[in-house]
Design a protein that fits this description.
The complex is a heterodimer of chains A (about 500) and B (about 160).
Chain A (H helix, E strand, L loop, with lengths): L17 H24 L3 H6 L6 H12 L7 H9 L10 H23 L4 H9 L2 H34 L3 H50 L2 H11 L12 H13 L5 H4 L14 H12 L1 H15 L12 H9 L2 H37 L7 H20 L3 H9 L1 H15 L8 H23 L11 H19 L10 H8 L1
Chain B lengths: L2 H22 L10 H21 L10 H20 L15 H30 L2 H29 L1
Helix pairs in contact in B: 1-2, 2-3, 3-4
The chains are: A mainly alpha (about 500), B mainly alpha (about 160).
């Protein structure tokens, strides 16, 4: 989920309350305890990068949900709903389908491929599928580019929350927030990450469900909220909100199809202990996503209705919707849990990014370059620290530049990985050239158009979006280039990979 | 035509349609009237096609899974179609599930119905269609063989280096 919307806000005020500070400290203590426990169990690179392949379906589903939803789901998203209405819902609406789609398209095949080839990363799967070090290396580069920018935006968002609670200044807050995430990411790797995700996911779901009830209550029920908005600003409760239908549908397409290309989420399939436990993954993942997204929907609409009816003062920025609502309309303890939930959402996403970024540096790139014998556990920890420090340094840059770095993360993952990974693992006719061409297309189009827009040299006309254009173009390039080289494509798939694809 | 081929063609057609809509934004008069319906149709086609592509085993059909996937197509096409073509509501119109009619169709139809259908369909078809014990046994045999080959290759390399 995108993080930049949260960056439009200055730090929310009113959080330095003893209850909120106490819950924040308790939360950090629980995370630290889980980290210490996990660090003792992390002995190999397999533990560090794929949690020793010993997760059950509950842990897998909750960890995937936590990694999918960043702080955007708690702060930026509701603010967007308050500002542009139900058009913003199209970012998360496809969650009703994506859990099952991920399991059907990637779950079984990635998990079985991991068993056959002892895979650790998503670029590993691409390298194995196409028997290509170039495809593995190129996908690792795209992951690294997206991870650094995406992590920086999330770390800045975390810094804003830490600063709001403890009042220590944004610069220090960024470093302290990063240090907390690093304390478990560098020692326990993804093993610590998934178990903190389990705790963090529970906090997020409980907070969301409770706030949903309070939001409906504050607004007088869903019908009263709708009636208030229909009377004051009917566009907000139209199916597209203030967006055009094409803009809203583009969000649905990018976030729906693009969910198959999010490496920090799909690589968790490798971690499942028993592939037959995938059976319940879609149900658990979809249900946990639905509960956790209740806040996104309800707070946004309730805040809009409360502002429209004069029961809440107008917001200075959309991102104030959640902080203001929970501080004014819920008990202080619940407000504290919501802020812990927002921090939890950000931290779990950052941990997942650090893990896949470190794996790209210490596992995928050396393999792509033909290097062997890298001590992956030690270098994985060093790379985790290096990426974290780089992201924290970038987070200190002006907010607009940090937002630029993070804005293309989801779209870059989608346009570079969906064709080669999601379709390639299900289509024997896909070729190495098709995979490399589509990854290169996604990377080049996204970086070029986002950079041109940032320097104000060129921007797409209304109705077109960089992520939608890049994803559609990389899919078309993948199909066309593969079709042109289709002769002998199926025979070029390694026999063991072919067996997994046909199972 | 096999299920897999039909799914791939559908995804390709959907990607072309999305690309056409994106490029149409560059036209002098802005987005044409067909853009939104075309994008809605592309989404309604692409997601069920991806589900079918993932569920297709080798060149076998989808069996009972055809129905939930068709239902997903109908829900997406019907939901987005209704949102595009039904007239806007006024404050006097009755609410559905506490929401204006078109918003309710999108939120409840697209946001909730597939959630009730697809995860249960996945679980119901899992043992018979998705992953059988014999599939895992076969893959594990392959994994053992691959491991032995890697070990032999590493031994040979170490021997050569000595």
């Amino acid at each position: 989920m995108p993080a930049p919307a949260i960056l439009q806000a200055s730090a929310p005020s009113g959080l330095a309350h003893p209850t909120i500070v106490a819950v924040a400290l308790l939360y950090v203590a629980v995370v630290a305890a889980i980290a210490a426990w996990a660090a003792r169990r992390t002995r190999t690179a397999g533990d560090f990068f794929v949690a020793g392949r010993r997760l059950g379906p509950w842990t897998l589903a909750i960890a995937s949900m936590s990694a999918t939803l960043s702080g955007f789901a708690f702060v930026g998203g509701p603010g967007l709903v308050q500002a542009i209405g139900l058009g913003a819902i199209h970012i998360v609406l496809s969650a009703s389908i994506t859990g099952a789609m991920g399991a059907w398209v990637l779950g079984k095949r990635l998990r079985l491929l991991a068993e056959v080839r002892e895979l650790v990363t998503v670029p590993d799967a691409i390298g194995a599928r196409y028997d290509s070090r170039a495809a593995q290396g190129l996908s690792a580069v795209t992951i690294l580019v997206a991870v650094v920018g995406y992590t920086a935006t999330n770390v800045l968002a975390l810094g804003l929350i830490v600063h709001a609670v403890f009042g220590i200044g944004l610069g220090w807050a960024i470093w302290i927030g990063m240090l907390v995430v690093l304390s478990y990411s560098a020692t326990g790797g993804i093993l610590a990450g998934v178990y903190t995700d389990l705790f963090q996911g529970a906090v997020m779901a409980i907070a969301s469900a409770l706030v949903f009830v309070y939001a409906l209550d504050a607004g007088g029920g869903m019908a009263a909220i709708s009636a208030a908005l229909l009377a004051h600003d009917p566009a907000l409760v139209g199916p597209w909100g203030r967006l055009t239908p094409v803009a809203a549908l583009s969000l649905f397409f990018v976030f729906g199809v693009g969910s198959l290309g999010q490496p920090h989420v799909v690589h968790k399939f490798y971690m499942l202990r028993d592939p037959r436990r995938l059976k319940w993954y879609p149900l658990l993942m979809t249900a946990s996503m639905a509960v956790t997204l209740l806040l996104f929907f309800a707070v946004g609409l309730a805040a809009a209705a409360l502002v429209a009816t004069g029961r809440m003062a107008p917001l200075a920025t959309p991102d104030e919707a959640t902080p203001r609502f929970v501080l004014e309309f819920t008990p202080r303890l619940l407000a504290a849990i919501v802020f812990a939930g927002a921090a939890a959402a950000i931290m779990s996403t950052v941990n997942s990014f650090l893990s896949i970024g470190a794996a790209a540096v210490t596992h995928d790139l050396p393999r792509a370059l033909g290097l062997r014998g890298v001590r992956e556990l030690r270098w994985g920890r060093i790379a985790t620290v290096a990426i974290a420090v780089l992201a924290a340094l970038l987070a200190q840059l002006p907010g607009v530049l940090v937002a630029f770095l993070g804005i293309f993360g989801f779209g870059l993952f989608a346009s570079t990985l969906v064709p080669a990974l999601a379709i390639g693992l299900n289509w024997p006719g896909a070729t190495r050239a098709g995979a490399i061409a589509s990854i290169a297309t996604g990377l080049a189009v996204t970086l070029a158009l986002e950079t041109l827009a940032y320097v104000r040299a060129f921007s797409l006309p209304a109705g077109a979006s960089v992520s939608g254009l890049a994803l559609a173009l990389s899919l078309v390039v993948f199909f066309v280039v593969s079709w042109l080289g289709r002769r002998g494509a199926a025979a070029a798939v390694p026999a063991d990979v072919r067996a997994v694809m046909e199972s | 035509m096999t299920t897999r081929r039909l799914a791939l063609l559908s995804i390709f057609a959907a990607a072309l349609a999305v690309l056409a809509v994106q490029l149409a934004a560059f036209l002098p008069g802005g987005l044409p009237a067909w853009a939104a319906p075309a994008l809605a149709a592309a989404i309604a086609l692409a997601l069920p096609a991806l589900l079918a592509l993932g569920a297709a085993r080798n060149d076998r059909g989808l069996g009972r899974l055809l129905w939930p996937f068709l239902a997903t197509f109908v829900i997406l096409a019907g939901g987005f179609g209704a949102a595009l073509f039904l007239p806007p509501e006024s404050a006097a119109d009755p609410l559905w599930f506490g929401l204006p009619r078109r918003a309710a169709i999108v939120l409840v139809g697209i946001g909730l119905l597939p959630m009730l259908v697809l995860p249960l369909a996945y679980a119901a078809a899992f043992d018979e269609h998705t992953l059988r014990p014999e599939d895992i046994a076969r893959i594990r045999r392959l994994a053992e063989q691959a491991k032995e080959r890697r070990a032999a290759s590493a031994d040979a390399e170490a021997h050569a280096e000595r």
